[in-house]
Design brief:
Blueprint lengths: L1 H23 L3 H18 L4 E5 L6 H8 L6 H11 L13 E5 L6
Antiparallel strand pairs: 1-2
Protein name: LysM domain-containing protein
Keywords: Signal
Organism: Sporolactobacillus shoreae
Amino acid sequence: MMKKRIFTILFLVACWTSYSDLTSGSLPAGKTVATTAIQNQVKEKSAVPFQRITVAPGDTLLSVTERISNQVPPITDVINNFSILNPSVDPNHLQIGKVYSFPVYSQKS
């Protein structure tokens, strides 16, 4: 009976540590290489100029875009360009302290 409890506890600890490693990412070196590769692909594919900005409290996609751009196109264009520049990021849920690529719009002369 005692052996079953010990094995159950060990199994639960192993599951918890595996879950913790998978969700927090215990291999930061691998993330850096992957992030750099994605950034290079974004620079090559991006037709819209962008600026990398760290999100501050109160910042939204539109507020940051308005701050760094001379003009702002329709919000659907801003959302589409943001999604191209930041794959797998929800533009409605920006995280404070994270760095994102925001599209920069200027008037064509």
